[in-house]
């Protein structure tokens, strides 16, 4: 088993799938780790498929292309059905409960149910940070980065007039618990 | 140490060009390199430069011809079929000895093709596309940092050789993000100094010297032969001595040697690690320059152990031809490839390598 953490994030355009990946990549960068972020690109559109790969490691990353992952974030049912097989045995699967009506089939992986849209609306009173609630859940379970690092990530990515959104995003990091 | 930034490949290419002193960019949109012109449109003016969205790739390369003739550091970028459209202009830049940098973020072809990563422009960029006796100098980086460093250097190489330099990457390197350190911004050549540094440039003789001429028409064909023999080709002979770059890995004791460049080399390295876990030792030669091809790299192969040299590429054996020329019949060769915009995975390379080695026994 290599020391590289391979993360696959899949959903549809508009859910902030690529952004979850970028936030993980920034967190890795700020923790002085090696990282690659690679989107599956194509004729993108809102509602079309959107997915990306993030590899985080202590040593330089050879292939940013992966065929299996340690962590899968399934933001909708179609992605869950299509990519569940990629998770290594013992790996982590995060399911966006609200959009995944059928439960995962695998028994040899750790499944975490994250109802991120509802949590965002009910706990945080926002319909825009569901993806960040998911990011917080992944970060908590998979130990990607400390909350201090996540704060640095938001400080770096939310500048100027957007800086007022940092507290909301930080609350999203801690909104979910198993 | 300078700050590491997380950057998308295409954006990093643009920053590297500006850092290298490029102040003129001309381009026409095409996936998967659109972030290059997008970044230039946003940032180049602030850096004191000029961005022009050309009406086609033919116009882009013609703008380059003009800007380079005037002595400016200039760049264009495109993808595969867009580079194909530029060939006439690239040839003109070569015979007129105009330095420029061209980024090709390759996608599937031929024709308009697909928008996914490919390496099928190998022959076009290394051996022609343009008419006449001509070469591009071609760099093939495999990480975003290496691309940044190569682009930074490419402007100096272009000026030194007075020849176009092509940076050949694929959609994967263009679209992905990695941490990069952007090099220090070089001072830009000021207009008043162009004449000193580039005495051939068309910057106005002010009645103080003979006028410079830059022209790609040679009605006296005896002069054209002299130009090719005495000006163009000696530069290429020097390039073949000075420019080849490559990386070698694990050649000692290797049963087979992969030859792979760009993004494919990264995937090949992971396949090598997987094969090593199964006790199969594979070496790697990664050409960093595609032209001049690093022939000398192949002298380092372990004669005692190596049974086969395998070209791992996203094209139908285009690089394999150069490998065979470099090997001069010393080793059998094989090809592991995907085309059309399909990528190799580490596992596929592992399985196909075993099949190649199995067939040799």
SSE order of chain B? EHEHEHEHHEHEHEHEHHEEHEEEHEH
Chain pair sharing the greatest interface: A-B, 20 and 24 residues
Rg of chain A (C-alpha, Å): 15 Å
Number of helices of chain B: 13
Structure description:
- The complex is a heterodimer of chains A (178) and B (361).
- Chain A is an alpha/beta fold and 178 residues long.
- Chain A has six helices and six strands.
- Chain A has a single domain, classed as Pyruvate-ferredoxin oxidoreductase, PFOR, domain III (Pyruvate-ferredoxin Oxidoreductase, domain 3), CATH 3.40.920.10.
- In chain A, strand 4, helix 2 and strand 5 form a beta-alpha-beta unit.
- The longest helix of chain A is centred in the first third of the chain and has 14 residues.
- Chain B has two domains: 188 residues, Rossmann fold, CATH 3.40.50; 114 residues, Rossmann fold.
- Helices cover 40% and strands 19% of the residues of chain B.
- Chain B has 13 helices and 14 strands.
Topology, element by element:
The complex is a heterodimer of chains A (178) and B (361).
Chain A: E1 5-12, H1 17-30, E2 34-39, E3 49-57, E4 69-74, H2 77-83, E5 87-96, E6 110-114, H3 116-123, H4 130-142, H5 147-157, H6 166-173
Chain B: E1 4-8, H1 9-19, E2 24-27, H2 35-43, E3 50-53, H3 57-69, E4 74-78, H4 81-85, H5 87-95, E5 100-106, H6 122-127, E6 137-139, H7 144-161, E7 164-170, H8 171-175, E8 177-181, H9 191-197, H10 221-242, E9 246-249, E10 256-259, H11 262-277, E11 282-287, E12 289-291, E13 308-313, H12 318-327, E14 333-337, H13 346-360
Parallel strand pairs in B: 2-3, 2-4, 4-5, 5-7, 6-7, 10-11, 10-13, 13-14
Antiparallel strand pairs in B: 1-8, 6-12, 9-11
Helix pairs in contact in B: 1-2, 1-7, 3-5, 11-13
Provide tags for this entry.
heterodimer; A: 178 residues; alpha/beta; Pyruvate-ferredoxin Oxidoreductase, domain 3; 6 helices; globular; B: 361 residues; Rossmann fold; 2 domains; seven-stranded mixed β-sheet; 13 helices; 14 strands; 19% strand
